[in-house]
Amino acid sequence: MSDCLFCGIAAGDIPADVIYRDEDFVVFRDIVPTAPTHILVIPVQHHENIAELANADVELAGRFVQTATTVAQQEGVHEGFRLVTNTGDEGGQSVRHVHLHVLGGRQLGWPAG
Ligand code: AMP
């Protein structure tokens, strides 16, 4: 999608602190980190949110989660981490290209706000 920020990052047209990429996924550091480790994982293919992705391609959705957990292990958040995918207005999603936040490196609070 031409007007999608994360499609622009996936295409390499918009700069980002990319730490991993393969044919299907791009992983980069969040521009406004909220934890010592705050990484975003996106599929190259545009899907608006996790529900749309899971309905369209459950195999890709599974590898999406696998990529995020692999990144967490590589980042060394061995004491624990959190995967978050905000979805829709009430879910607090600001970028309408599905992404997993990988958060760790400090004690995370719960419940979420
Ligand atoms: P969400 O609010 O769940 O949709 O998350 C969107 C995330 O994208 C936020 O944590 C932003 O800080 C992050 N973000 C927005 N623009 C960029 C960018 N250009 N590079 C990296 N992260 C970004």
Describe the protein in words.
- The structure is a single chain.
- The chain has 3 helices and 5 strands.
- It has one domain (5-104): 2-Layer Sandwich (HIT family, subunit A).
- With 113 residues, it is an alpha+beta fold.
- Helix 2 (50-56) packs across helix 3 (58-75).
- The protein has a 5-stranded antiparallel sheet, with helices on both faces.
- 28% of the residues lie in helices and 22% in strands.
- Adenosine monophosphate (AMP) binds at residues 5, 16, 28, 30-32, 40, 86, 92-95.
Task: Give a short synopsis of this structure.
By secondary structure, this protein is an alpha+beta fold.
**Major sheet size, sense and barrel closure:** 5 strands, antiparallel
Helix tally?
Answer: 3
CATH topology: HIT family, subunit A
In the sheet with the most strands, the strands line up as: 1-2-3-5-4
Q: What molecules are bound to this protein?
A: adenosine monophosphate
The share of residues in extended strands comes to 15-25%
Number of strands: 5
Protein structure class: alpha+beta
Mean pLDDT rating? 97
What is the total number of structural domains? 1
What's the helix and strand layout?
Blueprint: H1 5-11, E1 18-21, E2 25-29, E3 37-43, H2 50-56, H3 58-75, E4 81-84, E5 100-104
Antiparallel strand pairs: 1-2, 2-3, 3-5, 4-5
The chain binds adenosine monophosphate.
Adenosine monophosphate (AMP) binds next to loops.
